[in-house]
Structures are given as structure tokens and as C-alpha cells.
């Protein structure tokens, strides 16, 4: 089935989305057809697993998370729809999560230590206090979160006199800081 999600491995924090806290995959009969799909509304477009939690983005741009981590208020062994709309990508570290929102915004929440939320401070924020990362503009083509940091690859689009111009920006690792060496391309738009 297209967009179906199956998870296996350690399940002690509900991170497999099975509705329980047991490990899956320790026996052959638990693999393949033996793995029950994770239940959520829609079809998965992308998925991210990190630490004790898992999150997915549906083809309808909805965010679903389960397990124990910044995307879950408490141990959540079944997927819960997270309040954000128009989500294209998700990445979670051990204690924080970030989502790329359609239109180019990047929002982060969780433990703000080491500046990993991109807010220019070290304050922690709950889901309802997610901060829009300043200086990250454009289409986010890749998003990654380590234990204590976050990276995004951006593409900035511009149309000028029938020519599509876009610039691929290297990873942004701190608010307002870009690494040198961005590449640019041009493509003639069909008339």
C-alpha cells in the first residue's frame, strides 16, 4: 500500500507506533507481513525517526508523531496529529524538532540548549511556542537534526524576464550565517 508505514526495533518508549511498548523484530514472524502498519490518517510522504520518537509528514502536509520526545507531550505509543499545518519536512534530534512549512518558513521547538532551535538564544519551547527561525528563507529541500544541532539546505527561486533563477544555499547552521560557495543556476522558462 502506498504511503504505509511499518516500524521495528526498540519500542520501550512507544517509538514504533504500534500502540504498545514492546520491541518488534526480535523474531522472524514479526517481520515482513508480521509487522502491523502504523495507523494514522492519510498516506506518508516522508518519515523521520530519532531517539525515542518518530514523526511523519502526510501527502496532505499534516504532521503525525509518536513515542517520547519533544513532539510528544508524554509517552504516546500511537500517532497523534500535531497542530501544525502545511508541513513539508520534519527532523528531530534527541530533544528538539524542526519542521519546514510550505512557503519557506522553518519552525523549531524543544530543548533550546546550544542554540539548536535557531532562535538566537538557549531557551526551551513547547510545541505551542515553536519559533520561526529568522534568516531561513526559501524552499527547504533538506532538513536534518543531530542530537544538539540543526541544518537546512535551501533553494531560493526568482523569475526574471522569463528565466527561472535559483540558488542552492549550503546548510545554515546558525541564525543569519551562511557558508560561502552557494551555487547558482539558470533555466529558460518556456514561452
Account of the protein in words:
The chain has 191 residues and is mainly beta. Helices cover 0% and strands 41% of the residues. It contains no helices and 12 strands. It has a 4-stranded antiparallel sheet with strand order 1-2-3-4, with no helix packed on it. Strand 3 and strand 4 form a beta hairpin. The C terminus is likely disordered.
End-to-end separation in angstroms reads 39 Å
> Total helix count?
0
Low-confidence stretches: 169-191
- Bin the helical content: under 10%
Computed Rg? 18 Å
Total strand segments: 12
Overall spatial form: globular
Can you give the mean pLDDT? 82
Strands, helices and their partners?
Elements (H helix, E strand, L loop, with lengths): L43 E7 L2 E6 L4 E5 L8 E7 L4 E6 L3 E6 L3 E6 L20 E2 L6 E7 L4 E11 L2 E10 L10 E6 L3
Antiparallel strand pairs: 1-2, 2-3, 3-4, 5-6, 6-7, 7-8, 9-10, 10-11, 11-12
Amino acid at each position: 500500500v502506498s504511503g504505509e508505514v511499518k516500524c521495528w526495533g526498540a519500542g520501550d518508549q512507544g517509538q514504533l507506533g504500534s500502540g504498545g511498548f514492546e520491541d518488534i523484530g526480535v523474531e522472524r514472524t514479526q517481520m515482513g507481513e508480521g509487522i502491523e502498519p502504523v495507523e494514522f490518517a492519510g498516506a506518508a510522504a516522508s518519515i523521520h525517526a530519532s531517539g525515542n520518537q518518530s514523526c511523519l509528514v502526510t501527502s496532505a502536509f499534516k504532521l503525525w508523531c509518536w513515542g517520547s520526545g519533544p513532539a510528544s507531550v508524554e509517552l504516546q505509543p500511537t500517532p497523534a496529529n500535531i497542530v501544525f499545518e502545511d508541513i513539508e519536512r520534519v527532523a528531530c534530534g534527541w530533544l528538539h524538532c524542526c519542521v519546514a512549512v510550505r512557503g519557506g518558513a522553518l519552525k523549531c521547538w524543544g530543548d533550546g540548549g546550544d542554540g539548536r532551535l535557531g532562535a538566537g538564544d538557549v531557551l526551551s519551547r513547547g510545541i505551542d511556542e515553536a519559533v520561526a527561525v529568522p534568516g531561513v528563507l526559501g524552499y527547504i529541500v533538506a532538513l536534518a537534526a543531530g542530537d544538539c544541532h540543526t541544518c537546512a539546505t535551501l533553494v531560493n527561486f526568482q523569475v526574471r524576464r522569463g528565466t527561472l533563477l535559483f540558488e542552492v544555499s549550503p546548510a545554515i547552521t546558525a541564525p543569519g550565517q551562511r557558508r560561502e560557495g552557494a551555487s547558482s543556476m539558470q533555466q529558460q522558462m518556456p514561452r
